[in-house]
């Protein structure tokens, strides 16, 4: 596609993002990008655009030779994959915002990009307005990426902010996130961490060349965070955030997961409120950098789609440099993790699984401890997410120092709690 050629778009989906893109394109005539047809599921729904624009027949878009770009912003993952693969095979460039679909089909999508040599861009699928994918692809090409820590889900960050700062209850905060168009149609995807884990899945590919199925990542959402956890956080001068993180260990492997975490007030991520997202990158040469911007909502998401459309003008493609041009990194669960766990009864907690427990409060109805576990304990067992147990990572959670492994376990008898 040459730089002067117009972009003729076939748009799939006219929800929060699709309609946002329609409006944004009307305000950016310089891009010379026009939506020729919009494919929707429900023709009965009233839309803020001329009727003639809409169809329910996907082939009208996929088989139209004039349409050179397909923008796919629908909800359902399998139909989205079908649309994207057909479009690429039909020689069209594709821009997508379907994070679940990308996470679930990444190996096939990588294959299709190689086969068809078309562009498949999805900047809007993670952190909406923050250009995180292109940054990871381009800027850190040769730099050593020590770690990335991020808030990648706007709805859960919005809910935590409203609950702990504005004192709304969970249901009120969720309802507001839904009304503002931040939440997924099925909000459990946000609340229980699936959406963040999906985004983290393909961000790991761009950051470290890691390609794993979505269920390979240990993750949780904010559903078990208890009011008492917020009180402990306040006492300790922490915020609670849902943090996606990846850290390169000394053995060259990568520790990665998405879990709630206590965040110190002076941490960059503590600054991230409401539907904003934030990404803190630590690298060998650039040192620490912080990216911040709206992570959900109609225009912020459409802005990233717009930026992808504009990148198509110079045939921009992801090169997946860490995967194809460098030795890809490997994911590992072989490290230790410092956690805070709150619970109703000791019987739900396998105390013997802890390397050591360094703090505990057991007098009140809601009890808690702070201790260190091997990460495999979280990967292989589910006690930490059952029986109203709440697990929140300590601020500097990953312990990899080999000396630590040699430390004699501080016995629980010594601690006097077994
Ligand atoms: N439900 C998502 C979120 C939308 O809250 O982050 C943006 O991907």
From TrEMBL:
Q: Which UniProt keywords apply?
A: Amino-acid biosynthesis, Methionine biosynthesis, NADP, Oxidoreductase, Threonine biosynthesis
Task: Specify the superkingdom.
Answer: Bacteria
Residue ranges annotated as coiled coil are: none
Q: Where is the Aspartate/homoserine dehydrogenase NAD-binding domain?
A: 13-123
| Record carries keyword Nucleotide-binding | no
Residue ranges annotated for the Homoserine dehydrogenase catalytic domain, each copy included: 131-309
Enzyme Commission number(s): 1.1.1.3
What reaction does this enzyme carry out catalytically?
Answer: L-homoserine + NADP(+) = L-aspartate 4-semialdehyde + NADPH + H(+)
- What biological processes does GO assign it? methionine biosynthetic process; threonine biosynthetic process
Q: Does the keyword Aminoacyl-tRNA synthetase apply?
A: no
According to its UniProt record, in which pathway does this protein act?
Answer: Amino-acid biosynthesis; L-methionine biosynthesis via de novo pathway; L-homoserine from L-aspartate: step 3/3; Amino-acid biosynthesis; L-threonine biosynthesis; L-threonine from L-aspartate: step 3/5
Named from the GO MF annotations, one term is: NADP binding
Q: Which family does it belong to?
A: Belongs to the homoserine dehydrogenase family.
Write down what this protein is called.
Answer: Homoserine dehydrogenase
